[in-house]
Amino acid sequence: MEIVLRNNLILVTTDFDTLNTQWMRDFLSNHSRGMLFLEKAVLVFRNETLSEAREEFIKELSQFHAAKHDFSHEFFLRSMLKFGNQPIRVELNKDEEPQNVKVNLYAYNSDTVLISLDYPNSWVLSYLRSQLEVYVERGTDTSLVLDVSDYGAKARLEKALNKRHVLHYQISYSYNERFISKLYSDFANFSFGTLCRDEDDVQKNHFYTVLQCPIGASQDALKDSYKRLAKAYHPDKILQEAPHMIKHYTQKFQLLQEAYSALRIVS
């Protein structure tokens, strides 16, 4: 383990075994709501309601580090406590192949989605909870049931599932061919007045979904949503990401352009 005290954060570089010690897991689990998950790293921000837990963690961290390097724990602890208000970044230093974790997706209907793991994995589940907590109806150590009845929830779910790396784990999402059709089955209830429900109508409905707008939204609403999403999904934003993410963002960006161009005509 190595600890570097910087002006703006405490940087902890360690191996996966240390990351899974009980005191480390307890601290990160308690802060998962305000934690930023990165590839092979997490960034923990200060939470006033958990200040005592944070101080206790810094003491454990200092003692562990001092024992590893055989120097005075008390002196190093005083130095660390001066940085107690700064974010803590914990990153892995072991260069080894990531472990694959399978995450299963099942849509009961357009309003409810089940996310389940074959085996308990607190890190992957903590990530999913941190991204989707406001939509979680219930959960166990291997599953979450989500309320995705509004478009914002569906968009948030899609964004959360775009991430394929959490610390030491590579996530593989699995779902059957009916998952998407069930999730968006509510669009079958919409109509365009006296227009027939043909393939063109289905395509229009899909374009509104792509732009995260209700059916028949105004041109101003479409434009605002398009600009926001195009900025978020522009491929130039992720040049350093893995190839599959670049491909996903490129396809998403192209679809946004297609949807906005089509709906500008009919709105």
Commentary on this structure:
The chain is of the alpha+beta class and 267 residues long. 45% of the residues lie in helices and 20% in strands. The protein has helices spanning 16-19, 22-30, 51-69, 73-81, 122-132, 151-161, 179-183, 199-210, 219-233, 243-266, and strands at residues 2-5, 10-14, 35-38, 41-44, 88-92, 99-107, 112-117, 136-139, 143-147, 165-166, 169-174. The strands form two sheets. It has a six-stranded mixed sheet. A hairpin with a 2-residue loop joins strand 10 and strand 11. Helix 3 runs antiparallel to helix 4 (73-81). The termini are far apart.
What is the topological layout?
Blueprint: E1 2-5, E2 10-14, H1 16-19, H2 22-30, E3 35-38, E4 41-44, H3 51-69, H4 73-81, E5 88-92, E6 99-107, E7 112-117, H5 122-132, E8 136-139, E9 143-147, H6 151-161, E10 165-166, E11 169-174, H7 179-183, H8 199-210, H9 219-233, H10 243-266
Parallel strand pairs: 2-5, 6-11
Antiparallel strand pairs: 1-2, 3-4, 4-5, 6-7, 7-9, 8-9, 10-11
Helix pairs in contact: 3-4, 8-10, 9-10
Provide key terms for this protein:
267 residues, alpha+beta, six-stranded mixed beta sheet, 10 helices, 11 strands
Neighbour order of strands in the largest sheet? 8-9-7-6-11-10
Give me the strand/helix succession.
EEHHEEHHEEEHEEHEEHHHH
Largest sheet, in brief, is: 6 strands, mixed
What is the gyration radius calculated from CA atoms? 23 Å
Could you report the average pLDDT, rounded to the nearest whole number? 79
Indicate the percent of residues in helices.
Answer: 40-55%
- Strand count: 11
State the end-to-end distance. Answer: 59 Å
Approximate shape: elongated
Looking at how many chains there are and whether they match, the oligomeric state comes to single chain
Helix run count: 10
Structural class: alpha+beta
- What fraction of residues sit in β-strands? 15-25%
Uncertain runs are 188-199
